[in-house]
Amino acid sequence: MTPIAGQPILTAAEMRAAEQRAIDAGTSVTALMERAGAGVAEAVRRLAGDAPVLVLCGPGNNGGDGYVAARILRANGVAVRVAATGAPMSEAAIQARTGWDGPVETLADAAPAPVVLDAIFGTGLSRRVDGGIATPLAALVQAARLSITVDVPTGLATDTGDALIDTVSHFDITLALGALKPVHVLAASAQICGTVRLVEIGLDTRSGARAEVIDRPTLQAPGIDSTKYTRGMVAVVGGIMPGAAALASEAAMRAGAGYVLLLSDTLPPNTPHALVCRAWAPDALADARIGAILIGPGLGRDDAVRSKLAVALASDRPLVIDGDALHLLEGRTFHDRRAPTILTPHGGEFVAVFGAWSGSKIEAARAAAATSGAVVVFKGADTVIADPDGSVVVAPHGSSWLSTAGTGDVLAGAVAALAASDSPLARHARAAAAVWMHGAAARRLGSAFLADDLAREISAVRAAL
């Protein structure tokens, strides 16, 4: 079993393409099923020990994986029972069923077991699951001491995480076969999946993959000849709520910026002495040493603010647009900007900028980035970072304690610091590095923290990289 950080994320269609490449290269579907079942069996043995296992098999290849796993578990001395929704229908699943020489119970009549392994439906499910499957599955999962699902929890759509079942069963562990899928990382369905681990089955899943799970970034320490300007100068455009801009400014400093300039008529108390504050002026962004501009935190939305945004948009510096500034874009795109533009909307701001969306958050963010010509950091319990070229990084399992005022301003400041730096990372990877630091700081703090605490904690996170 492999942890998921840095692993590619494939849609159902992309997974089928990866399997087809293996088949075209000479690997049979039966061989792939044998690998999958063996990997699942090994994982179950490690997780469940000698506890009795009930394997639930569906009619397709996911069920075939279950039959193979059951056969191998029994051969290794584990007490195994199998229950099925019906006869296998695919050729490979039929062959896998013949390899299981024990009885097969009906799902509806199956008695509980300490360990339940769900192999009913996998990535191919696209229709609703009726109660004849949902109800007994839920009862068996609830009764089990340990619940494990093969590839995708039965009743969830692979690409969106949407529920296709009335009663959704929550699993302790999901064993993703070959590659992660969107269902494993999107917020609501990720909770249903529980802990996700990858089971390798010998597929090339990197070729053509356009999305991956966020991973710990590699960021260099300043060189011996670094200066405050070469480390990155960030200009933060303040507005009617100076505290938000000050939070973003402190986060930028703690995320690695060498010089942060807050353009505001008011400097809130208790800000770091290293923060430079000047009044806004039309030529405030003309300094060639500025490495990136951040506009939006606490900005407001009046006519004076619109003129500030116009100046920022006209600049040739990397630009991070957050908060109030997002509401003032009015359909503006950024294909013509010479420097990268990064938008950091939460859910409501995303709708305000790009309109209502449904389906996959990954695809929504990818489409928004392509349309706007900007890197889009679509925030939430799952944060999706999308580049205009189609590349996506997903940060799952965000701390629920981040749902407090100011934490978005802290993230915006960290994004600006990375945008201003001389890092060799690609533009969307820089934003992803900031998201990772933001999440790591929240994990270090634990619970009931303030955004001020979060900004300060980023120093410790950055120092550990």
Automatic annotation (TrEMBL):
Residues 15-209 form the YjeF N-terminal domain. Transmembrane segments: none annotated. It comes from Sphingomonas echinoides. AMP binds at residues 379-383, 408. The gene is nnrD. (6S)-NADPHX binds at residues 61-65, 122-128, 151, 244, 298, 346, 409. Binds 1 potassium ion per subunit. Homotetramer. The keyword Isomerase applies. K(+) binds at residues 62, 118, 154. SUPFAM superfamilies: Ribokinase-like (SSF53613), YjeF N-terminal domain-like (SSF64153). InterPro entries: Carbohydrate_kinase_pred_CS, CARKD, Nnr, Ribokinase-like, YjeF_N_dom, YjeF_N_dom_sf. This is Bifunctional NAD(P)H-hydrate repair enzyme. Its cofactor is K(+); Mg(2+). PANTHER family: ATP-DEPENDENT (S)-NAD(P)H-HYDRATE DEHYDRATASE, ATP-DEPENDENT (S)-NAD(P)H-HYDRATE DEHYDRATASE FAMILY MEMBER.
